Request: fold
Amino acid sequence: QVQLVESGGGLVQAGGSLRLSCAASGGISSRNVMGWYRQAPGKQRELVATVTSGGTTNYADSVKGRFTISRDNAKNTVYLQMNSLKPEDTAVYYCKSTQPWPYAAYWGQGTQVTVSS
Reply:
């Protein structure tokens, strides 16, 4: 059974940092694209960052220069280092694993990040 388990969320003051982790299990391939998405109250879920198995990264413009995504294929874990946090970063953060072929997508349960002003 595929599982993605996020951890590391919490409450932090503006300007602070948090590191999210997502541990994958249940047969997820290390070749999958791993990503972080977020959903704020009343808004649609949006992409934050993705990383391929080869380490190519992609970021939303709103987090470029502040967030860093990385992965440890040996541990089947993906990380999101978030620095210089802003109140508008407040959201539930979700981990996603995407298998390109045959297509399959797996989501974690989400972890709350709250940034106070």
In short: The longest strand covers residues 91-99. DSSP finds no helices and eleven strands in the chain. The chain has a mean pLDDT of 95. Residues 67 and 82 are 4 Å apart (CA to CA).
